[in-house]
Amino acid sequence: MVITIAFEALMCNLVQAQISKNPIMSPLSTEYIYPTRVIWEQGNITNSREFLKVKTGQATLVNDNMIELKNVGSQQASVILDFGKEINGSVELVTGMTTGGNKTQKVRLRFGESVSETNAEIGLHGATNDHAMRDFTIELPWLGKNKTGETGFRFLRIDLLGEDTSLLLREVRAAATYRDIPYVGSFKSSDERLNKIWEVGAYTVHVNMQDYLWDAIKRDRLVWVGDLHPEVATINTVFGYNDVVPKSLDLARETTPLPNWMCGISTYSMWWIIIHHDWYMHHADVAYLKEQQEYLAGLVRLITSKIGPDSKEFFDGTRFLDWPSSDNPEAIHAGLQAMALWSLEEASKLAKVIGDVETMKIADEGVMKLKKYIPAHANSKQAAALLGLTGLGDAQQMDSEVISVGGAKNFSTFYGYYMLQTMAKAENYQAAIDIIRNYWGAMLDLGATTFWEDFNMDWLPNAARIDELVPQGKIDIHASFGDYCYQGFRHSFSHGWASGPTAWMTEHILGIKVVEAGAKTILVRPNLGDLKFAEGTFPTPFGPLFVRHEKQQNKSVKTIIKAPKGVKIIR
């Protein structure tokens, strides 16, 4: 027995030493968030105002200020709570001493990104437990607490189950997980609507910066490489360097041996190259870039192998730009041609930095070949945007013929960023600003605190807000709309690819553009449109850059720039 105990103690010490030597540390912090509103309640509920009070998260032996849910016969007690903003996290329920013995109580929990989602049954209008559990039954302990579920949500419905039973709750709070990082970048202008859109775009990406950079916190909670591009643009604009980006890029590389396409989509492997170029321009990490050399070289050869003798792309895998363009194969072809060109141009620059002359030559030859064929835009704003950005089409022509036609109509949350970029290239800044107000602003008008997987201006007439019970005669925008894989309640309401206006407003309204790797040289050239002033900060490896632009009576713009030492400003 003595020998056994000594051996077990030795093993325990060895395990503890190993844990201390190689701890697995989470980059995430937890913040407890209490409900801001009781949206709805039914049945016998007393002291529901206590839901809104900040407490301790600790069960006590004193049953003071308790919330009671009581089922009389089969009449069920239920409540819907609003936590004020979309979060990623779980919920914690703290119980009291219910009379009648120390028995557990069953409750049904339904999380929602809209109020109406909390009332949906699984399978109804797309309601699902895919990727994250948002509708399930649990048992709560007597005089204790239970932390359960992890998903993206703002609203929670609690139903007490069983007949002739009661439940005492001391509190219900959300445990939000997030990266505790400062917002180094900022934006403020004479238009509060634009200011709010910038902030919501920043927050949409921030809440998706979990262990990895996800596309969404409810569905899919995955690293989709195409989604990463606008997300990384926002991270560079708001937070500066964060290891969630290289960690996610490396995951995509490590889980996609060539000749496979990342996420099964050829354009997503192309986005991987483009993101690496953007990341290098902001942070100039040559050592990290060199780690990509072997994969980059192989990927360049794979992309160029999909260019035919007629200079047309013939990519296999899933042929995809974004969901709203999925039914237009001619537009997808044009987009793939442009994406191949764009990615090879960036690959050539990266190969030059790391001294891979052969890969640079192969990429350059691919670029020359692709430029010999100009596909039609197919009346697609997505295709027109990519053609305009890559020079396969004239930006002003793409804007006037397709992108600006109908304003925000037929915009999309993902490729809307590239539509705005082409409008900027065409110097149509005012129209782009108006589209940001109308398209992304419309989601805010409906109660959004994060931007959605998709949005269509045709959904607006008679639509109810997402933060209220749907009034009679109004349309439930969450249940009634969506398409492809995001029909009804399966539609994600916190999708990082929708954050493009945040990066766009900093780049084009504040006029801040990195032109030398590591942000050593920055071009500042503002475009205020109808704004009276705009100011903000931008993260660089040397510290934040501050700019302020103010329109004078003679329409000229007075600019103040405060640049950190080590950053050269050109105007």
TrEMBL record:
Transmembrane segments: none
Domain Alpha-L-rhamnosidase six-hairpin glycosidase: 184-373
Domain of life according to the entry: Bacteria
Pfam family, one: Bac_rhamnosid_C
Domain Alpha-L-rhamnosidase C-terminal: 511-568
SUPFAM superfamilies documented for this protein: Six-hairpin glycosidases
GO biological process, one term: carbohydrate metabolic process
InterPro entries recorded: 6-hairpin_glycosidase_sf, 6hp_glycosidase-like_sf, Bac_rhamnosid6H, Bac_rhamnosid_C
This protein's name: Alpha-L-rhamnosidase
Source organism: Rhinopithecimicrobium faecis
